[in-house]
Amino acid sequence: MDLKNYITDVPDFPKEGIVFKDISPLLVNARATNYAVELLAKGLYDIKATKVIGIESRGFLFGSLLAQKLGLGFVPVRKPGKLPGKILSESYDLEYGTDSLEIKAESIAEGDLVIVHDDVLATGGTAAAACRLVEHCGGKVVQCNFLMELDFLNGRKKLSSYSLHSLLHY
């Protein structure tokens, strides 16, 4: 099954000059979604991870499925103001501006081995910020995991100190 057949390009979204990769066609096809989760999980059973982080918002979709497949806890990393309690925050640059991410401080324990998942690796800023949040909590990132990678944006450079896996490359 070629998963690229289930991802469509939306030009000029969210702003002019950006080509958004829409995963909606993948999500509405249960067989394709299951296949993607199987591929994302392949090779992760032996790394002894304890948690999977999903980055808001599309990283929640496959991140939670991946955590369930691996039998691990799932931790959402959110945009500011969406989590109650004690939170940690990290700012980052992305291909069309700046933003920040937050995590509940108690959701990653000292020594947790964490898989960081997002739908797309673009410039690497978002994933790098999520990795820093894991480390601030005392966890260790054992892999950065992506449904797709936009190779031309060189996001892999910002994550060079981490093991990295992307299913699809554009």
UniProtKB/TrEMBL annotation:
InterPro entries: Ade_phspho_trans, PRTase-like, PRTase_dom, UPRTase/APRTase. The keyword Glycosyltransferase applies. Signal peptide: none annotated. Pfam families: Pribosyltran. Pathway: Purine metabolism; AMP biosynthesis via salvage pathway; AMP from adenine: step 1/1. Keywords: Cytoplasm, Glycosyltransferase, Purine salvage, Transferase. It catalyses: AMP + diphosphate = 5-phospho-alpha-D-ribose 1-diphosphate + adenine. Belongs to the purine/pyrimidine phosphoribosyltransferase family. PANTHER family: ADENINE PHOSPHORIBOSYLTRANSFERASE (PTHR32315). Catalyzes a salvage reaction resulting in the formation of AMP, that is energically less costly than de novo synthesis. This is Adenine phosphoribosyltransferase. The lineage of its organism: Bacteria, Pseudomonadati, Bacteroidota, Flavobacteriia, Flavobacteriales. The gene is apt.
